[in-house]
Every structure is written in C-alpha cells, then in structure tokens.
C-alpha cells in the first residue's frame, strides 16, 4: 500500500489547489501561477532525509520544470510579435513538463530516485494541468507538433522499456508510451483523453500499490519475494496485463475507443498503426514481469501451475468486473 508521511498532508493540499487553479483558470497568467504552486508543492514531497537520491531527483525535476515554466513565459512574450508560432512554443514547454518525447530524458532518472508514492503522483496527477492546457491551444501548426510528439512518445516508450530490469524505469517508459496515446486522444476530443487518463490512473494505482507494499524495485525481486496471499499475485498479473491493453481487462477499452474515434474521424491510419505496434512492444515487458509473478515459484526454471479454486474465482471476477466499467466510460464520454 502507499504510505503517507505526516508532513505530506499540507503539501498535497497545496499541490491539488495549484492543479485546480491551473485547470479552471481563463487567464494565462493565473494558469502559470497554478503550475508554479503545483511545482513548489511537489518538490518537498520528493525530498527525503534518509538518502541523497530523492534530493538529487528533486533537483533534476525542479530544473526541468523551471525550464518549462521559463519557456512558457518566453512564449507569452513572443505572442506579441509572432501570433501564430507562439502556440508551438507553448506546446513544446508543456511537452517538456509532462515528459513526452523528445523531452522524455528526465523522467526515468527522476523516477528511479524517488519512492512509489511520488512515482504515482508524477505519472498521473502532475500531467493533468499540462495536458488540459494542450487541449486549449490546438492549431494547425501545433497539431503537427502534437502528432510528432505522440508518435515519438509511443516509439520511445516501447523501445526504451525493452532492456529495463528496474520496475520504476519500466513504469517510467510505460508512462511515456501512454503519453503518446493521451496526446492522440487530445487530437480526437477532450472527453477522450479524460477517459483514457482515468483508466490509466486506476490501473497504475493498482500496480504501484502492490510494488510499494512488497518493496519491489527489480524484476528479480518478483521471483525472490514471496508475494502472498495468492490473490495479490493474481492482482499484479491482471493489472500488468490491463496496463498493456489485453482484452477484456479495463485497459483495453480506452484503446478500443481510441481506434473507433480514429476510424470515425478519418485521422491518419499510419499514426494509429504506430500506436498499436508500440502497444504490442510494451506488452512484451509487461508480460516479462507478469509471467514471473504468476508462473514461477522460485529462481529455478520450474513452472508451478497455480490453478487452485481461489485464483480461478478471483481472475474470473476481475475479468467480469472490467467490462462492467465500459458503459460507465461511455456515459462519461457523452
């Protein structure tokens, strides 16, 4: 489970307050202030007195976010002289803040040095304000930038996670890959990215909670750590498969809705093909962790087929639960 320290409460409140200010503001200046309040509230959450790695990650995160904020201010100044090009500069600064490719270089090192609770906030909550801002500034020029970043994010996230053995870096590249899908969802409509983001957040919370409760930071720990009860092992297996978009789990339905929107909106099929191919590659390193959690009982290459009644009942209930959420997603979209 995710553990909250006593001093986290105030900073979480101000973090959410900055997020609400940035999302609900109609002024670019107030919106920028909301982003800065959100940033300055998240930095203390990253710091820790136990070791130097969280402090190093906090410094890296601060420098990157400060660069994105300064670029945003520079773009607002350039809007007086270049009324058409300034939106692309704003979009690039927002892509830097979210960790989308080609500005993804900071996300895996930062996530490697922080705890699971901070990782979850960084992968989900910290992306809401920049993504909502992107949906407001789409023009023909910025749409081309958005498409390029979406394709690069999907490709980099899929290829970058193939040779990773650290679970936090695997989830970091997974976040970059899903960022490509969310950027594509922005091009479709605003409701679509909200649906995709909610499904991604729920699945990520499930995976991060299990990794945090068992303190799993490497793939080998999945083999050496006794993940009991068996229901927890099955939950990890199904959550990873859902993160990869395997039907009929919850992660499959946002991707299916995206495919339908691409077809009905007559968007580029090449773009969609790259997104689907990247999803297959990410499924490979999800399965590498999921297979270890379910099938292998020790370091020996001996399969222990755990097909008892409780695992079967749990897997059946989860498989039947996620399609029940599909009408709810459709209701939100309309």
TrEMBL record:
Q: Does the keyword Signal apply?
A: no
Q: What is its EC number?
A: 7.1.1.2
GO biological process annotations for this chain's record?
mitochondrial electron transport, NADH to ubiquinone
Per the UniProt record, which residue ranges are transmembrane? 12-37, 58-82, 144-163, 194-213, 234-253, 268-287, 308-332
GO cellular component terms, alphabetically, are: mitochondrial inner membrane
Domain NADH:quinone oxidoreductase/Mrp antiporter transmembrane, residue spans: 25-278
Tell me which InterPro entries the record gives: Complex_I_Subunit_2, NADH_UbQ_OxRdtase_chain2, ND/Mrp_TM
Q: Cite a single GO MF annotation.
A: NADH dehydrogenase (ubiquinone) activity
The family assignment reads: Belongs to the complex I subunit 2 family.
Q: What does this protein do?
A: Core subunit of the mitochondrial membrane respiratory chain NADH dehydrogenase (Complex I) that is believed to belong to the minimal assembly required for catalysis. Complex I functions in the transfer of electrons from NADH to the respiratory chain. The immediate electron acceptor for the enzyme is believed to be ubiquinone. Core subunit of the mitochondrial membrane respiratory chain NADH dehydrogenase (Complex I) which catalyzes electron transfer from NADH through the respiratory chain, using ubiquinone as an electron acceptor. Essential for the catalytic activity and assembly of complex I.
Question: What name goes with this protein?
Answer: NADH-ubiquinone oxidoreductase chain 2
